[in-house]
Amino acid sequence: MWLWINGGSAVKNTGRLQVYTGNGKGKTTASLGLAVRAACSGMNVYIGQFLKGQDYSELCLPGRFPEITMEQFGTPEFILPGEKPSAVDIQLAEKGLAAVSAAMLSGEYHMIIADEICVAVYMGLLSEGKVLELADARPDSVEMVFTGRYAGEAVIEAADLVTEMMEIKHYYNTEKLAARTGIEN
């Protein structure tokens, strides 16, 4: 059992469900910052990335932080809103949900991050009901983080903390600047 430190005193079973959503930049980045902070505190972290099969800079985290385990559950292709996901996309998302659940229930991890899981629901790769079942099954000692645009009302209601990233201005729109290594990917 993990003991959380609160103002110098140990507190048992205070894990929460955090959701980072919205159209602004920074959802995955926020969760990765949490992962690094947790790892630097000696906590074991599992990160499951949905819809991602590309080579992102953060994939080096497990090599630099042995407390972090990371897996991707997506193809190298992006699914755009309005496109019908392929059977492979759905299978990978379901595999990801099973892996995240297994990690969460293993007793090995103090923090579980389901990166882009909200988008996986929005795109029809996973049902919101199954994602809510995952959240409901979370042991009290586990901190769980969901990221992605389009978090549904039921996920927001189930969460203990919700942060909406709101885009006010982004150089991608004004300069058509591609994703930069180390910054956006």
Brief account:
Helix content is 34%, strand content 21%.
Structure keywords:
alpha/beta, 185 residues, Rossmann fold, two-stranded antiparallel ribbon
What does this protein look like?
This protein is of the alpha/beta class. It has one domain (about 15-175): Rossmann fold (3-Layer(aba) Sandwich). The protein is built from seven helices and eight strands. The protein has helices at about 25-40, 60-65, 85-105, 115-120, 130-135, 155-160, 170-175, and strands spanning about 5, 10, 15-20, 45-50, 70-75, 110-115, 145, 160-165. The strands form two sheets. Strands 5-4-6-7-3-8 form a six-stranded parallel beta sheet, with helices on both faces. The chain is globular, with a radius of gyration of 16 Å. The model has no long low-confidence stretch (mean pLDDT about 90).
Distance between the termini: 34 Å
Percent range for helical residues? 25-40%
Largest sheet: 6 strands, parallel
Name of the CATH superfamily = P-loop containing nucleotide triphosphate hydrolases
Multimer state: single chain
CATH topology grouping: Rossmann fold
Overall geometry: globular
Q: Provide the spatial order of strands within the biggest beta sheet.
A: 5-4-6-7-3-8
Our count of domains comes out at 1
Query: Which strand-content bin applies to the residues?
Result: 15-25%
